[in-house]
Specification:
The complex is a heterodimer of chains A (324) and B (282). Chain A is mainly alpha-helical and 324 residues long. Chain A folds into two domains: 69 residues, no CATH class; 195 residues, MetI-like (MetI-like fold). Chain A has 15 helices and two strands. In chain A, α6 crosses α9. The N terminus and C terminus of chain A are likely disordered. The longest helix of chain B has 35 residues. Chain B has two domains: 57 residues, no CATH class; 214 residues, MetI-like (MetI-like fold, Orthogonal Bundle), CATH 1.10.3720. Chain B has 282 residues and is an all-alpha fold. Chain B is 74% helix and 0% strand. In chain B, α8 packs across α11. The chains are: A mainly alpha (324), B mainly alpha (282). At the A-B interface, α1, α2, α3, α4 and α6 of A face α1, α3, α4, α5 and α6 of B.
Chain lengths: 324, 282
């Protein structure tokens, strides 16, 4: 499997490349019918998936090569890579990029540790296992915007229960003081961790449930400590699940939008790349620059996916799926 | 899932698990309870900073259900999420059946493409789709949201469904036909009941995905014609410009959290099974 966007083009090829007059000897009638049925059943899904991703991303590339301001549509013209030069030399882009990477790295790292703990609780808790599983699905399922409002009001001075713990005049979301930036980022990261750790935990639980109980018991009998059982028995067996969880959560965290939109709307330089793209499109009404950011985010995501899949070889989720 | 056969229920262990689990449950639920508390607070006490309301009221709920801004958004949310879910389960089931049961060239490519779509950043589609939808007349319409939701929920649907379909004992279908059932009867009476749990699970996961989306909802809609609740509450304002809409937003937030709570409460096992099977067995 390849994480390169070029692979999408190949997907449509098989149905068209189907040989009309294949010699009857090479394939039995049944096998050919099976092929045809397979392609027929997959065709609607493939068409819908590609029509709404491959074509628009190509269109975004085309738009990104134009000066295209919706307030001055008459001034629309082809400008080559000028938009990319504008964005990539702008400190707003690099600030947003740095913020996005920082939030993604910190939240995914914390979630990996917390998620591992939650997965163990969900597997081994002696009491209330069902209750824990039910409770942690609430953050997973809740609308992110709704959760973000809950956090915002919790941190609002006077209104919120969390703001009461802060020294007066220091509430990060409403006050202005030096170094406020890092505290706002922490609040955003906390909201993100609360919302998405359950998903990480469930993916890790899937891996953890593949670790046989007998193996852990044998390790215990041989004198392995709890830490040794974790690092030398569980984690190696869970490697594929951990990589899938990390890949999906990293890409997801890189696309962060909802929490920031509600908590700060990008104030105090807390824009993520997604927020920056949205602002350029809907606040500045600049379709050219907005599309340029769209393409850059896509390239960044493709690179992250490529690094994960290449870097971890056989553990790639595509092969995990294809093996069966 | 597996149970630990060797573990003994000593009082100390039970106590420590109780404490751990209580902490997890509190952390998971406090933000939701806080929002519920805000939604029941009287407007005069909404800024008192107390975790529990001192004076309870339903005024916030009455308020939002009297405005078409919220009720229309709720209808849009329900309609769009339901239609997208049905389409995703139907189209996804076809592809998942092929992936799970049939041999055909291009299967690996399909799985790879599906994975790529799952990783696709929504924001990258916002500017091209915004422009395309305006030209095609799909901007601010139901199909304008249903189409991208269908695209992005198909990977989830195909993974989860093919994992479930692989577990079905398909030999039963032939056995029923040997016993004299028509292919249709064999499918409807033997296979369909076995496939139903997987399809219900998938439907719940897809519904949650569509229900919670925000990026497409605020980018591809502009009016009550298609704005969903998450987008609508982001633009809520108070009854007058001097009034903060905290109570209304909290009440609207609670209303759209209710379906999630119901799903989680009644289908906890299935949701966990769906998310974990899709991840490992693929």
């Amino acid at each position: 499997m390849s994480a390169h966007p070029g692979a999408t083009g190949v997907a449509q090829a098989p149905p068209q490349a189907r040989p009309r007059h294949r010699p009857a000897t090479s394939l039995s009638e049944g096998a050919r019918a099976e092929r045809r049925l397979g392609w027929l059943l997959c065709a609607p899904a493939v068409i819908v998936m590609l029509a709404v991703t491959a074509y628009p991303i190509g269109y975004a590339v085309w738009l990104s090569l134009q000066r295209y301001d919706l307030r001055f549509p008459a001034a629309r013209r082809f400008v080559g890579l000028a938009n990319y030069a504008t964005v990539l030399t702008d400190h707003l882009w690099w600030t947003a990029f740095g913020v996005t990477v920082f939030i993604a790295v910190v939240s995914v790292a914390v979630e990996l540790v917390l998620g591992m703990g939650l997965a163990m609780i969900m597997r081994w808790a002696l009491v209330g296992r069902g209750a824990v599983r039910t409770a942690i699905l609430v953050p997973y399922g809740i609308v992110t915007v709704v959760a973000a409002y809950s956090w915002q009001y919790a941190w609002t001075p006077g209104t919120g229960y969390l703001a009461n713990f802060l020294p007066s005049g220091s509430a990060p979301l409403t006050e202005q003081w030096p170094a406020i930036f890092i505290f706002i980022i922490i609040i955003i990261i906390a909201a993100e961790i609360w919302k998405t750790t359950p998903f990480m935990a469930l993916l890790l639980l899937a891996g953890l449930s593949l670790v046989p109980e007998e193996l852990l018991r044998a390790a215990k009998v041989d004198g392995a400590s709890g830490w040794q059982r974790l690092t030398q028995v569980m984690l190696p067996l869970m490697k594929p699940a951990i990589l899938v969880a990390l890949l999906f959560r990293t890409l997801d965290a890189f696309r962060i939008f909802d929490n920031i939109f509600i908590l700060t709307a990008g104030a105090n330089n807390t824009r993520s790349v997604s927020i920056l793209g949205y602002d350029n499109l809907f606040t500045a009404l600049n379709l050219g620059i907005g599309s340029t950011i769209s393409v850059l985010v896509f390239v960044a995501v493709a690179i992250i996916a490529f690094v994960f899949v290449k870097g971890f070889g056989t553990a790639a989720p595509g092969q995990e799926v294809g093996r069966r | 899932m597996s149970t630990q056969t060797t573990s003994t229920r000593t009082p100390a262990k039970v106590a420590s698990w109780t404490v751990t689990n209580t902490i997890v449950i509190i952390v998971a639920l406090v933000p939701v309870l806080w929002l519920a508390s805000l939604s029941f607070k009287d407007p005069s006490t909404i800024a008192d900073g107390s975790f529990l309301p001192h004076r309870w009221t339903l005024a916030n709920y009455r308020g939002i259900f009297q405005t078409s801004l919220f009720t229309r958004a709720l209808v849009n949310s329900i309609g769009i999420a339901l239609i997208a879910t049905v389409l995703a389960v139907v189209v996804g089931s076809m592809a998942a059946y092929a992936v799970a049961r049939l041999r055909f060239p291009g299967k690996q490519v399909l799985v790879a493409v599906t994975l790529l779509i799952a990783m696709f950043p929504a924001i990258s589609l916002v500017s091209p789709l915004f422009n395309l939808w305006r030209q095609l007349g799909l901007f601010d319409t139901w199909p304008g949201l249903i189409i991208p939701y269908l695209t992005f929920s198909l990977p989830l649907a195909i993974y989860t469904l093919s994992a479930f379909f692989r577990e079905i004992p398909w030999e039963l279908e032939r056995a029923a036909q040997v016993d004299g059932a028509t292919p249709m009867q064999a499918f409807l009476q033997v296979i369909a009941p076995l496939a139903a749990p997987g399809m219900v699970t998938t439907a719940i996961l897809v519904f949650i995905f569509c229900w919670t989306d925000f990026v497409f909802a605020i980018s591809l809609t502009s009016t009550g014609a298609s704005q969903t609740v998450p987008a609508a509450i982001a633009f809520f304002s108070g009854a007058s410009q001097f009034q903060t809409p905290i109570g209304s937003i909290a009440a609207a937030g609670v209303v759209i959290t209710i379906p999630i709570i119901l799903f989680v409460f009644f289908f906890q096992r299935r949701i966990v099974a769906g998310l974990t099977s899709g991840a490992v067995k693929g």
